[in-house]
Amino acid sequence: MVQYYLPKGMRYSTLEERKEYYSQEFNPQEITRWFSSGLSGTKFAVIIGRHTKIYPEKYRQDATTTIIIDEYNTINDVREQILEFLPEAVYYDRNVYDENDRIMGQELAFDLDPENLTCPIHGTLADKMKKKQGLSFCELELDMIQKEAILLLEFLQRLYSNLRVVYSGRGFHIHVLDKAAYNMSSKERLDLARQIKQEGFHIDEWVTSGEFRLIRLPYTLNGIVSRIAVPLKKEELEGFDAVHDKRCLPTFLQNKAIS
After folding, report:
1. How many domains does the chain have?
2. pTM over 0.85, yes/no
3. Where is 166: in which H helix or E strand?
4. 104 located within any domain
């Protein structure tokens, strides 16, 4: 198995470490607070081991698939299912569903990942893909995508009033919670995504257009880099240190020096 190269201190989480995080550190109530309008109709999803190839043996056949979690009563039920699968990634569906499972809208989001940049050292995404390093990134790329996230946030503040920023473990997500944004058509989303890209931003067009509706669930563990996805205040983004910030470090890394 080809391991992705990552900034020093970032690495794959083991199954034991995933279990430790979700059983001892993960706070389901943080998720409840994230969904300020309530969890009704929210669907979650997990990927057990698509990229890391680390998974419970009993789920070998399902390790690379996306497993939807939509049968639960409380967020604690979701947590129990996460503990069952011990996934490398946990997401939520940005679609808003009614009681009949009809789509009523979708949260608008922007996804900025460091591997999509052209790195002076490692080249383009195409260069990395040829080496089977598509999700790899270095500290320089991480710094570059953080600067881009700051600029994109400033740009979006001219269009929207209710924005949230999340460090995803690799890059940054900007969530738009303005009511009008939920009602945008697919064409409007695609046009906006293309406008943003024309401005020079390296966003994932599939995410913004709504074609890919899943996004990483805040406060969960990104098992590819052993970092917690953490919401950030707008004023924190510029000085944020993704490699060393203790809010992002699970306990199993807290006592290990990262330099």
Report:
1. 1
2. yes
3. strand 163-167
4. yes
For residue 7, is it within any domain?
A: no
Domain that holds residue 63: 15-251
What percent of the chain stands above pLDDT 70? 97
Contacts of 170 by beta carbon, 8 Å cutoff, 6+ apart: 113, 114, 115, 135, 137, 142, 222, 224, 225, 227
Structural domain includes residue 4: no
| pLDDT above 90 for 37 | no
CA–CA separation, 79 vs 25, rounded Å? 11
- pLDDT tens track for 201-246: 999 999 999 999 999 999 999 999 999 999 999 999 999 999 899 9
Note the pLDDT of residue 258.
Answer: 52
Q: Which of 74, 73, 89 is nearest to 21 (CA)?
A: 89
Give the span between the Cα atoms of 55 and 204, in whole angstroms: 27
> Could you tell me which residues are beta bridge partners of residue 215?
92
Mean pLDDT, the chain, as a whole number? 94
Beta strands in 48-171 (DSSP E): 66-69, 89-93, 95-97, 103-106, 108-112, 163-167
- Cβ–Cβ < 8 Å for 185, 79: no
Q: Tell me the pairing of strands 230-232 and 103-106.
A: unpaired
CA distance 63 to 15: 13
Residue 5 lies in a domain: no
For residues 112 and 86, give the distance between their C-alpha atoms in angstroms, rounded to a whole number.
25
Identify the three-state secondary structure at position 208.
helix
**CATH code where residue 131 lies:** 3.90.920.10
d(CA 13, CA 183): 38
